[in-house]
Structure to design on (1034 residues):
C-alpha cells in the first residue's frame, strides 16, 4: 500500500509539473490541414448582413482575379461568436478575413492578434471611411479594422396615427417630441393597450444619444486607459430626459429589459404603438405580424435639444479585420480591398446599411426609413474605444443596471450614476 | 434463489448486518487471468477519464498560475503570474457574497428537488400503469426540452405584462399581480430560476428513486402490512432503507450540478438585476470567459471545485471507505 | 397492499394533475410554436391558442442543413452514449465485485472527475483536441461527450450493480455458467433500470450541448442541432416561433429514445420472476 502511494505521488508530481503548459505548442505547422489553406481564402461574415447576391458576385469577381484561390465563405451566428473567434484565432488555420463587431475590435487589437493595416488604408478607400466607425478600428495609433457597415437608431412612427392626432410635422426638438406624445395620448389614450412611445428601460444605446446631445460622454480617454464619466452633470441630464420620456409616454414596456426582450418590433407590429426607437430593419420584423405596417410607418431622427441638429446616434456596426497569423494575408487584403470598392459598398447600402468605406449613401434614399438613418449617421459616434469594452457588453452592463435602478426609483439619480460610475471604472479603468 | 434481505443497495450503504451469504474468500491462488481481469475491465473507463477529463482539469491548475488572455493563447507564450489571479479574486468582496448566495441557492434547490422527486417516485409506484406512463412522459418532456427553449418559455410565463401567470392570477382575483415584475429583485429572480431548475431536475431524480423503489419486492410491503403498519410506517420501515443510499447518491450529484449551474442563471437575467442573481459560475464567466481572461477563469473554476470538495468531503470519504469487506 | 377504488381514483387524479402541472411549460412551448409572431406576447388570455399556424414548423424544418445537423447530432450523441454504457458497465463490475489494488483510487477518481465546471474546461480541452489534430472532426465531440457522461455512468452503474446480490450470479455459476456468462445472463437484465436512466441522461446531456459543439466544429456541415437551434436568433430579431418549433422538433428524439428504452425496461421487469 505504501509503495502504491509513493508511485501515485510520483506520478502526480510529474503531471503537475507539466500541467498548465497548455497552449505552448501552438503554430505547429506540421498539421496537414494548414498546408491546404493556401488554395483557399476563409472568410467569416456574420449572419444577416451581406445579402447572398452580393457575396456571390463578389466572390466570383475575386476568384476570377485570383486563379487557384477559392473563397471559403462561412456565415457565423452571433450567439457564442466570441468563444468561437477566440479558439479559431488560436488554431493552426485561422480564418483570413473576419467581420468583427466594432465594439470588439479594440479588444482584439489590444491582444495583438490582428494584422496591422495602417499601410493599406488608402487601398481600402481610406478617405471615405465613416468617421464614427473609423475610431473603433484604430488602436495605439495604428489601424487594425476597416469599417464595414453601420446601422443606427431613429424614431420609427405611425404616420396614420400622427395624422389622426393632428401632428403635422415630425418633431425636431425634444420639446416638440414631448408635445407630440401629449397629442397622441389625447387622441388614443382611452385605449388601455395604447402606447405613444414604446420605451423599454434598458435601451442604453438610445441613452447615449441623450448624453452625447448634452455634450457629455460615458467615458473619457485618460492617457492609455479610460475613465468613466457617468456621474457628470451631462450624463445625469441625459438620464433625466430618458426618464421623462418613459413617464410622459406611459409606456408599458418593462423597465428591467432592453428592446429585444420582449422584442419591440413585434409589439409595434401589433398596432397599438405610435412610436418606437430602433433601426429600420425592425420594421421588417414588425411586418411579419402586420404586413401593412411598412406603408404606415415613417421615421425621423432622434430629436436633439435644438432644432438645427438631431441628437448624435450610436453607430452599431462591424469592421473587417485580418488575423495576424492568417496564412493568406496578401489575398485577404485583396478581398477587403474588393469589398471596400464603391460597387459593393453601394450594394450594402441597397441592403439597408450605411456603408463603411464609401460616402455615397444615395442607395439608401430609396427607402424613407433608411434615408433618415443615413442622414443621422453623419452625426454618428461609437462607444469608447477601450480594449476592455467587450467586458461591458458581454457581461453585466452597469449602464443598463443604472437605467433600471433610476427608472424604477430603487436608486436616486445621484446614487444610480455614482454606482454605475464605480462599476464602469472597475471594468474599463486601469 | 434470493436470500432473505433482497434489498437494492447501491453505493454508499454499509450493508446491514444481514445474513448475506458471502462469496468464498479467495483462499485459492488467483490465476494470472483473474488477477489482471479487474484492471482490464476498468481500463477503457480509466484511460478515458484520465486523458479526457483528468488532463484538462490538471491543466486548469497550471493555467490558474498564468496570465492567459487571447494574446498568450494565440502566441503560445507562457506568462507566469504566481498567485496573482487568486489574490485578485479572493480580495474581491463580491466573490464572498456570491459564494454565500450560491451555497444558499444550491441548498434550497437541491432540497426541494429531492423532496419533490421523492414524492413523485412514491406516487409513480402507486399509480396504475396508464397514469404512470402519462406522468413519466410529462417528466421526460420536461427533462428533454433544451435549455434555450425552457428559459425563454419561463420568461414568457413570468413576463410582467403578457405572462400567463400574472394574467391567470389577475383572473383569479389577485389584482396586485397585474404588471407585477418577477425579476425586480435578486431573490425573486433566483426563485424563478430555481423553479425552472427544479422543474427540469426532478425527472432524473424521480426516475432514479423510482428505479430504486422498484427493487424492493412487494412481499416486504405485504409483510409490513400484515404486521399492522400503515402506509406511512411502511414507507419508513421498508422503502426508506432501500432508497436511502440512492438518495444520498443523487443528493451528491444534485449538489454538484446545481452548484455549477450556469446556462439558466445567465439566460434569465444575466446575473441581474444589478448583479443580485449572480452565482459563482456566472461570476466565473464574467471575470474570465467573457473577457477572454482564461487564467482568471481557471482560478475561479479551481476555487469552485475547492468549495465543492469541502461540501462533499465527508460523503466521499464514507463512500470510498466502505464495501471493502464485501468484496471477493 | 390492495387499494380501494376510491384510493385508486384519488391517486389517479393526483397523478394526472401532477402530470399536467409538469407538462405546462412544455405545453406552452408547443403552443408558442403554433402562434404567429404577433400572438407570442399578446395581452389576451391565451391559455389555449387563439389560432394555429404551422408555418414555424415548416420554416424550421426547411432551414438549410437541418438533416445534416440532425445526422451529426445523432452520430455524436448515440456514439457517446454507447461508449459510456460499455465502458461504464465494464468498470462497474470490478468496482463492485472484485477486490484489487487501486479500487479506492479509481472510485475517488470517478467522483473527483465530476467536480470541474464544464465551461472552464473549454480551453484545455480545445488545446488537447488541437494538438491531437482532431479539431473540426466529429470524433472530437464524441470524445468530449463520452468524457462528460462517463464518470456519472460509472457511478450509477456501480451503485446499481451493488444492489444486485452476488448470490444470483453464484447460483448461475454453480449451475455451470462462467463468471462472464453469469453476469451476462443474470445480472445484466437486472441492471436494466440503471441502464435506462444512465443512457437517457447521457443522451440528453450530449444532445443538448452547445458550446463545445459550436467551438470545436468549424465547417457548417459538421455542426450539430444545438447550433441549428441557436441560429434562429439574428442580430436584429429573434424568430421566437421558429425557436419554439425547433425546440419541439428537438425534444422529439429524446422522447423517442426514452420510449424505446422504457419498453425494454418494462419487459424486463415483468419478466422479473427471476427476482422472486
Amino acid at each position: 500500500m505504501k509503495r502504491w502511494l509513493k508511485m501515485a505521488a510520483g506520478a502526480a508530481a510529474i503531471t503537475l509539473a507539466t500541467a498548465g503548459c497548455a497552449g505552448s505548442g501552438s503554430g505547429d505547422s506540421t498539421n496537414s490541414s494548414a498546408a491546404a489553406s493556401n488554395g483557399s481564402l476563409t472568410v467569416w461574415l456574420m449572419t444577416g448582413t451581406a445579402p447572398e447576391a452580393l457575396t456571390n458576385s463578389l466572390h466570383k469577381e475575386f476568384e476570377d482575379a485570383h486563379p487557384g484561390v477559392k473563397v471559403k465563405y462561412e456565415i457565423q451566428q452571433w450567439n457564442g461568436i466570441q468563444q468561437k473567434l477566440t479558439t479559431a484565432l488560436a488554431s493552426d488555420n485561422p480564418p483570413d478575413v473576419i467581420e468583427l463587431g466594432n465594439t470588439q475590435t479594440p479588444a482584439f487589437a489590444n491582444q495583438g492578434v490582428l494584422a496591422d493595416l495602417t499601410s493599406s488604408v488608402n487601398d481600402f478607400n481610406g478617405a471615405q471611411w465613416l468617421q464614427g466607425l473609423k475610431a473603433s478600428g484604430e488602436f495605439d495609433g495604428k489601424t487594425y479594422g476597416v469599417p464595414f457597415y453601420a446601422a443606427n437608431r431613429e424614431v420609427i412612427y405611425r404616420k396614420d396615427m400622427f395624422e389622426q392626432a393632428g401632428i403635422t410635422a415630425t418633431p425636431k426638438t425634444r420639446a416638440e417630441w414631448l408635445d407630440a406624445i401629449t397629442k397622441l395620448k389625447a387622441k388614443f389614450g382611452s385605449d388601455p393597450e395604447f402606447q405613444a412611445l414604446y420605451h423599454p428601460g434598458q435601451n442604453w444605446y438610445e441613452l447615449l444619444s441623450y448624453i452625447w446631445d448634452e455634450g457629455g460622454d460615458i467615458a473619457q480617454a485618460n492617457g492609455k486607459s479610460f475613465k468613466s464619466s457617468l456621474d457628470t452633470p451631462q450624463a445625469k441630464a441625459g438620464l433625466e430626459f430618458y426618464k421623462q420620456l418613459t413617464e410622459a409616454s406611459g409606456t408599458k414596456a418593462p423597465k428591467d429589459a432592453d428592446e429585444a426582450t420582449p422584442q419591440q418590433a413585434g409589439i409595434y407590429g401589433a398596432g397599438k404603438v405610435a412610436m418606437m426607437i430602433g433601426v429600420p430593419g425592425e420594421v421588417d420584423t414588425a411586418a411579419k405580424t402586420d404586413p401593412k405596417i411598412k406603408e404606415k410607418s415613417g421615421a425621423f431622427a432622434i430629436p436633439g435639444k435644438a432644432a438645427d441638429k438631431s441628437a448624435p446616434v450610436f453607430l452599431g456596426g462591424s469592421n473587417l479585420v485580418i488575423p495576424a497569423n492568417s496564412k493568406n494575408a496578401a489575398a485577404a487584403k485583396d478581398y477587403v480591398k474588393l469589398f471596400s470598392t464603391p460597387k459593393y459598398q453601394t450594394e450594402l447600402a441597397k441592403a439597408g446599411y450605411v456603408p463603411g468605406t464609401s460616402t455615397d449613401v444615395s442607395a439608401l434614399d430609396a427607402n424613407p426609413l433608411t434615408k433618415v438613418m443615413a442622414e443621422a449617421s453623419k452625426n454618428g459616434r461609437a462607444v469608447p474605444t477601450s480594449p476592455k469594452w467587450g467586458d461591458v457588453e458581454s457581461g453585466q452592463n452597469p449602464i443598463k443596471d443604472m437605467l433600471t435602478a433610476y427608472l424604477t426609483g430603487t436608486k436616486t439619480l445621484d446614487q444610480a450614476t455614482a454606482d454605475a460610475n464605480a462599476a464602469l471604472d472597475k471594468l474599463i479603468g486601469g | 434463489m434470493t436470500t432473505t434481505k433482497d434489498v437494492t443497495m447501491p453505493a454508499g450503504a454499509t450493508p446491514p448486518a444481514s445474513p448475506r451469504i458471502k462469496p468464498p474468500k479467495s483462499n485459492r491462488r488467483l490465476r494470472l487471468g483473474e488477477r489482471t481481469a479487474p484492471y482490464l475491465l476498468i481500463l477503457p473507463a480509466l484511460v478515458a477519464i484520465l486523458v479526457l477529463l483528468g488532463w484538462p482539469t490538471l491543466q486548469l491548475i497550471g493555467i490558474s498560475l498564468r496570465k492567459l488572455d487571447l494574446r498568450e493563447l494565440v502566441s503560445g507564450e507562457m506568462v507566469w503570474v504566481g498567485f496573482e489571479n487568486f489574490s485578485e479574486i479572493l480580495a474581491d468582496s463580491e466573490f464572498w457574497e456570491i459564494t454565500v448566495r450560491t451555497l444558499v441557492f444550491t441548498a434550497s434547490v437541491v432540497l426541494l428537488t429531492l423532496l419533490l422527486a421523492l414524492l413523485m417516485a412514491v406516487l409513480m409506484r402507486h399509480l396504475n400503469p396508464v397514469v404512470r406512463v402519462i406522468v413519466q412522459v410529462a417528466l421526460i418532456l420536461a427533462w428533454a426540452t433544451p435549455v434555450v427553449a425552457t428559459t425563454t418559455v419561463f420568461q414568457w410565463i413570468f413576463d410582467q405584462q403578457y405572462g400567463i401567470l400574472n394574467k391567470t392570477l389577475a383572473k383569479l382575483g389577485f389584482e396586485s399581480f397585474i404588471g407585477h415584475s418577477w425579476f425586480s429583485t435578486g431573490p425573486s429572480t433566483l426563485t424563478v430560476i430555481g423553479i425552472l431548475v427544479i422543474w427540469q431536475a426532478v425527472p432524473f431524480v424521480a426516475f432514479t428513486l423510482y428505479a430504486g423503489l422498484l427493487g424492493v419486492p412487494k412481499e416486504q410491503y405485504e409483510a409490513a402490512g400484515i404486521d399492522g403498519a400503515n402506509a406511512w410506517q411502511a414507507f419508513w420501515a421498508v422503502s426508506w432503507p432501500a432508497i436511502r443510499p440512492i438518495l444520498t447518491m443523487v443528493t451528491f450529484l444534485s449538489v454538484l450540478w446545481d452548484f455549477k449551474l450556469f446556462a439558466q442563471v445567465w439566460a434569465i437575467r444575466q446575473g441581474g438585476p444589478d448583479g443580485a442573481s449572480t452565482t459563482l459560475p456566472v461570476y466565473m464567466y464574467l471575470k474570465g470567459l467573457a473577457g477572454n481572461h482564461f487564467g482568471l477563469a481557471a482560478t475561479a473554476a479551481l476555487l469552485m471545485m475547492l468549495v465543492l470538495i469541502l461540501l462533499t468531503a465527508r460523503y466521499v470519504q464514507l463512500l470510498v471507505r466502505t464495501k471493502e469487506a464485501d468484496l471477493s | 397492499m390492495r387499494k380501494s377504488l376510491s384510493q385508486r381514483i384519488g391517486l389517479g387524479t393526483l397523478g394526472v394533475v401532477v402530470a399536467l402541472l409538469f407538462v405546462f411549460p412544455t405545453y406552452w412551448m408547443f403552443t408558442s410554436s403554433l402562434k404567429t409572431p404577433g400572438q407570442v406576447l399578446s395581452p389576451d388570455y391565451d391559455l389555449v391558442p387563439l389560432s394555429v399556424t404551422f408555418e414555424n414548423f415548416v420554416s424550421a424544418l426547411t432551414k438549410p442543413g437541418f438533416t445534416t445537423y440532425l445526422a451529426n447530432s445523432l452520430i455524436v450523441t448515440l456514439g457517446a452514449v454507447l461508449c459510456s454504457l460499455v465502458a461504464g458497465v465494464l468498470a462497474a463490475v470490478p468496482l463492485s465485485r472484485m477486490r484489487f489494488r487501486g479500487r479506492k483510487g479509481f472510485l475517488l477518481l470517478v467522483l473527483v472527475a465530476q467536480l470541474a465546471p464544464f465551461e472552464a474546461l473549454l480551453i484545455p480541452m480545445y488545446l488537447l483536441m488541437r494538438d491531437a489534430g482532431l479539431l473540426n472532426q466529429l470524433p472530437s465531440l464524441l470524445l468530449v461527450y463520452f468524457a462528460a457522461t462517463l464518470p456519472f455512468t460509472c457511478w450509477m452503474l456501480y451503485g446499481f450493480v451493488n444492489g444486485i446480490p452476488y448470490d444470483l450470479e453464484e447460483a448461475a455459476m454453480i449451475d455451470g455458467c462462467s463468471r462472464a456468462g453469469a453476469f451476462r445472463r443474470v445480472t445484466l437484465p437486472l441492471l436494466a433500470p440503471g441502464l435506462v436512466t444512465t443512457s437517457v441522461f447521457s443522451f440528453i446531456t450530449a444532445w443538448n450541448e452547445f458550446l463545445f459543439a459550436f467551438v470545436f466544429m468549424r465547417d457548417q456541415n459538421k455542426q450539430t442541432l444545438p447550433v441549428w437551434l441557436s441560429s434562429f436568433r439574428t442580430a436584429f430579431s429573434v424568430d421566437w416561433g421558429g425557436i419554439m418549433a425547433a425546440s419541439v422538433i428537438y425534444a422529439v428524439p429524446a422522447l423517442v429514445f426514452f420510449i424505446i428504452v422504457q419498453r425494454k425496461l418494462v419487459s424486463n421487469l415483468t419478466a422479473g420472476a427471476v427476482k422472486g
Q: What stands out?
A: Residues 66-97 of chain C form the longest helix (32 residues). The domain at 54-271 of chain C is CATH 1.10.3720.10 (MetI-like fold). Chain C touches chain B through 112 residues (CB under 8 Å). Chain C has one domain: 54-271.
